[in-house]
Amino acid sequence: MSLTLPGGPLARRSPDTVNYRVDGPAHRLFQHPFPRRVRAHFGGRTVLDSVRGALLHETGLPPQLYVPREDVDDSLLTATDHRTHCPFKGDARYFSLAAGDRTAENALWHYPDPLPEARWLAGLVAPYFARMDAWFDEDEEIHGHLRDPYHRVDVRPTSRDVRVVAGGVEIAATRHAMLLSETGLPNRYYVPRRDVRVDHLEPSATHTVCPYKGRASYRSLRVGPLSLPDTAFWYPEPLQDAVRVADHLCFHGEGVETRVDGEVAG
Length: 266
What we know:
mainly beta, about 0% helix
């Protein structure tokens, strides 16, 4: 993700703070081996099991897993009439997936005759992550998408003065925050729950999944008549890279400000 999205070295527009220029097309492809065994399950069957997977990084897009066709259970696949065209890779053909009484239409695709500049895609198949029931990186189940080896999450304690304000009311104040830096994203400050005025928090049914941090739960903020939905979130059981933000809340969204040493944080 960090290579191909804005700000990355393979983005459509390279950063200004470099001493080089990429001599190549504006839309860039970069593929490298995925270093571990990866498996996908659907309908109680193993759709793919591969130690020969590859991640394709493509300008403006998250990385996409491709695996050799031989590492996919061909008995579960049915070729469809669906076709798409990519000006950078060629004409894609699709397979539907069937296991038991369940079907996922056009769940995988491949380029049987890729363009010369993407010739290394020949013989590889790409699955839609969300069409599968479960994914495993070695024996660890993963959610959201495969983790990009060029994407980092770093958490550091900070004694800076961190305050959260909404509707003119101070919701949180601490000098014991955790600063989470994540590739391609602004810094986020996580406040210990003990330093938050929890009387302003209201329940929310919203949950999101980050493959690097874990499953997030949300709370809305209520400040007098002002209601700010889903502006507080935390990770009840964070993944290893984010374990230090356990029992900490982060605030983000319209109507809420996080101020660090008196300045509004991005």
